[in-house]
Design a protein that fits this description.
The chain has about 220 residues and is an alpha/beta fold. The chain has a single domain, classed as Rossmann fold (3-Layer(aba) Sandwich). The chain contains nine helices and eight strands. The strands form two sheets. It has a five-stranded parallel β-sheet with strand order 2-6-1-7-8, with helices on both faces. A hairpin with a 5-residue loop joins strand 3 and strand 4.
């Protein structure tokens, strides 16, 4: 039976980079579910569709195909109608649009089967907002990864600056706080720890310490 590891947590907690590193060391497939919502958000942005529950969003879903492909190193690529959009979905605008569109029931239903199918056939580390509570409620390991809003904003700010983006720390912090509120107050699958999850706070941890901490939790649970 394949092993599923669910890592949930707020925006900027380092879920993607930490989960990807852990998956590589365990030779598991890493599934970045947030990238799926970002891809749909990108499609909505391109078509000037408001990312809210509407017939327009439902129609959009009938016209697009979102896929994940994995190379020989189990590294993920996000495809939107066959186009590699892995880099295009990492802007602050895409992040906020993803947060809003992820609250739309039809969007969540559209992606549910895809996410569960991947976990059904592979050993996975899957990260997102509701993996342990909704997507993979029977995951053998559930982790809620977090850090202070200030620390998460600092990490995100540094990442964006390295990519050449013109942003300020205060703007990034505002986005983090807004995203936290949106994700935790939405009616459908709000961000919250699963009752049987292990809380890991990485505010005072560097990257390698965070990876080691997550791997130790996985080892202990398995």
């Amino acid at each position: 039976m394949p092993i599923a590891i669910a890592i949930d947590g707020p925006a900027g907690a380092g879920k993607s980079t930490i989960a990807r590193a852990c998956a590589k060391r365990l030779s598991y497939i890493y599934v970045d579910t947030g990238a799926l919502y970002r891809a749909i958000g990108l499609a909505a942005m391109r078509n000037n569709i408001e990312p809210i529950e509407s017939p327009q969003v439902d129609e959009l879903l009938s016209q697009i195909k979102v896929e994940l492909s994995f190379n020989e190193n189990n590294e993920q690529t996000v495809l939107l109608n066959g186009e590699d959009v892995s880099g295009l979905i990492r802007t602050p605008e895409a992040s906020m649009t993803a947060s809003r569109i992820s609250a739309v029931p039809s969007v969540r239903a559209y992606l549910l089967d895809l996410q569960r199918s991947i976990a059904k056939h592979n050993n996975v580390i899957m990260d997102g907002r509701d993996i342990g509570t909704v997507i993979l409620p029977d995951a053998q390991v559930k982790i809620f990864l977090t850090a202070s809003p200030q620390e998460r904003a600092k990490r995100r700010y540094n990442e964006l600056v390295q990519k050449g983006a013109e942003v300020t720390y205060n703007d990034v912090l505002d986005d983090v706080i807004k995203r936290d509120y949106q994700d935790s107050h939405r009616e459908i699958a709000p961000l919250k720890p699963a009752k049987d999850s292990v809380l890991v706070d990485t505010t005072e941890l560097d990257f390698e310490q965070s990876v080691s901490k997550i791997l130790s939790v996985i080892k202990e649970k398995l």
